[in-house]
Amino acid sequence: MDNFDSLEPNILVESLYLYRKPSGQAGNRWSETERAGLFNRLVALSTLAGIEYYSESRKRMRVFYESSRVIDNPSNKNPLPDPVYAEVPASLTLYARQKDLTFVDNIYRFDFQAGTDAIFFMQENLTVMSTRMIPAIGRNRLRTIFALIDTGDSILLYAAAMARTASPQSMSDRIGASFTNRAKAVIKWFTDGYSN
After folding, report:
1. Residue 103 and which of 68, 119, 172, 173 are 20 to 30 A apart at CA?
2. Which CATH superfamily is domain 2-195 in?
3. 114-150 burial, b if ≥16 CB within 10 A, otherwise e?
4. Is the pTM of the predicted complex or chain greater than 0.85?
């Protein structure tokens, strides 16, 4: 709620999905090995490159991230390999440089938190996001939340995007629809990786 209150968003979209575990894992809580695998999937930010979402404005599938890389820090922007963890850290901060075909080249902070039955991250933009050279979302004005919750037979996936845009209402509506479809694309990216 603090994130919502401090941001005062004029766009808020939420998605909730129930992903049934494969038959061999149904009914069981995550083992430490499975938990580490799920966490490593989430921090493998380079694998977001090339995923697609349905563009409301173009009425077709479109590449979401043209490129996505973990970087050392927002100043140097030196690319790093995706981290891999044998044990899940309780908290972690990563920085990423992601080139989006709509909002072009931006820097983000990812804050991860992990518990026994849940893994959560929040993504926040550290640069102004522009579309067609027009500033659409100011620095630190977009927060995306993604949570995985182990329910035994399934994994509950929650995604939310909230933003304070500098755009007219007509553009804000389009951005909201776009965020919904982008959330679906990220959930598909995660579940495809989990299934494999």
Report:
1. 119
2. START domain (3.30.530.20)
3. beeeebbbbbbbebebbbeeeebbeeebbbbbbbbeb
4. yes
